[in-house]
UniProtKB/TrEMBL annotation:
A GO BP annotation: porphyrin-containing compound biosynthetic process
GO CC annotation: cytoplasm
Name of the featured protein: Heme chaperone HemW
Source organism superkingdom: Bacteria
Principal subcellular localization: cytoplasm
Highest classification ranks of the organism: Bacteria, Pseudomonadati, Balneolota, Balneolia, Balneolales
Coiled-coil intervals: none
Originating species: Fodinibius halophilus
Length: 374
């Protein structure tokens, strides 16, 4: 089983926090689609096309800047080149692009999961994040989605903004929860150096959010979503039972996937494990001159990755899996570290290691400590 990720590298404008690869030259969409079709066709009759494709994910950038006829061509090319038996086809969209006919067209093309980038309903915060949509568009879009025939949908939310009060976060959650979403991805705002926000922080114009404020926001998000039966299953992902994202869960378990489009990553593990990245440059991609950066991964690297990804999830990681699949045994120093964190009630370790609610808040620190103690 494998997955396919398609990177659609266009955005109307640059959100202030975003360091994904995208361009705002949307006039190149048609040419991009032609090139993407060629990239898909080049995989036909290769070993990568033999495994059944379980999930397809249109991400970006902003996939909803594509027209349905372009999505149709992409879907047809995928079907011609791969063994598609997709149980989940996710399509990322922004509220300002969505209409009822657009959702209907995507549904009839096989998309069964919408991923809506709302981030906030607060006009000031939307402005601060330089989002292209308004609060009203986000609400309208959620109304359309909740009435749509998609099997599932997810909403992205950002908390921990430097200017965001707890009241503003509560109001965002009030508005979101009225729609009873099956899945929510809630991220704390990260300050990336190459972004507009990163530059403002560097120049001292904005103070980055304080850790205790971010932790308080995290608690509010957890509590409010859990009260409505939307439980956390990964540090940033929450859902009703049975609505977990299959595509992302497969990443965390090292399932094979191909990434298509500029800047997309792929991971393939058969006899050896290899990760490669398409060059993040649309011009090179369109001229068919892009290069791929390939990295071969050792079992030790894979084990550490699995440990990191597993500890971020509710399921944690089975010690047995680490030993059998990755030939990884904890060192004495790691065992001692695990015992100490267990006494502090930050994790539970028996046959599996799972972080507790207390531990999940400092997941990154625990993971880093554990890996470096090997
Ligand atoms: S957050 Fe999404 S819409 Fe905004 S710039 Fe990044 S990819 Fe584009």
């Amino acid at each position: 089983m494998s997955g396919i990720y398609l990177h659609i590298p266009f955005c109307k404008q640059a959100c202030s926090y975003c360091d994904f690869y995208f361009v705002t030259r949307t006039s190149e969409r048609e040419h991009f689609v032609q090139q993407l079709l060629e990239e898909i066709q080049n995989y036909a009759d290769t070993p990568y096309a033999v495994e059944t494709v379980e999930t397809i994910y249109f991400g970006g950038g902003t996939p909803s800047l594509l027209e349905p006829r372009q999505v149709e061509k992409i879907m047809k090319a995928l079907q011609q080149s791969f063994q598609i038996e997709a149980r989940e086809i996710t399509f990322e969209m922004n509220p300002d692009d969505v209409s009822e006919p657009f959702l209907g067209d995507l549904k009839s093309l096989g998309v069964n999961r919408a991923s809506m980038g709302v981030q906030s309903f607060d006009p000031d915060l939307l402005d601060f994040m330089h989002r292209a949509h308004s609060s009203g568009e986000a609400l309208h879009c959620l109304e359309l989605l909740s009435k749509s025939r998609f099997e599932s949908y997810t909403v992205d939310l950002i908390y921990g903004n430097p200017n965001q009060s707890e009241e503003q976060l509560e109001t965002d959650l009030d508005k979101l929860l009225l729609f009873n979403p099956p899945h929510v991805s809630a991220y704390s705002l990260t300050i990336e150096p190459r972004t507009r926000l990163g530059k403002q922080v560097e120049l001292g114009r904005i103070a980055p959010p304080k850790d205790d404020k971010v932790a308080a926001h995290f608690d509010i998000v957890n509590q409010r979503l859990a009260e409505q039966g939307i439980e956390r299953y990964e540090v940033s992902n929450y859902c009703r039972s049975g609505c977990e994202a299959v595509h992302n869960s497969n990443y965390w378990e090292h399932q094979n996937y191909l990434g298509l489009g500029p800047g997309a990553h792929s991971f393939w593990w058969d006899e050896t494990a290899v990760r490669w990245e398409n060059e993040a440059d649309l011009r090179s991609y369109l001229r068919n001159e892009d290069t791929k950066e390939t990295e071969q991964l050792t079992l030790q690297q894979l084990a550490e990755e699995r440990l990191m990804m597993g500890l971020r999830t509710r399921e944690g990681i089975a010690i047995d899996e680490l030993e059998k699949k990755y030939d990884y045994q904890f060192s004495e120093r790691q065992k001692e570290y695990l015992d100490n964190r267990q006494q502090e009630e930050k994790l539970k370790a028996d046959k599996r290691i799972r972080l507790t609610d207390k531990g999940i808040k400092i997941a990154d620190a625990i993971i880093l400590d554990l890996v470096t103690l090997y």
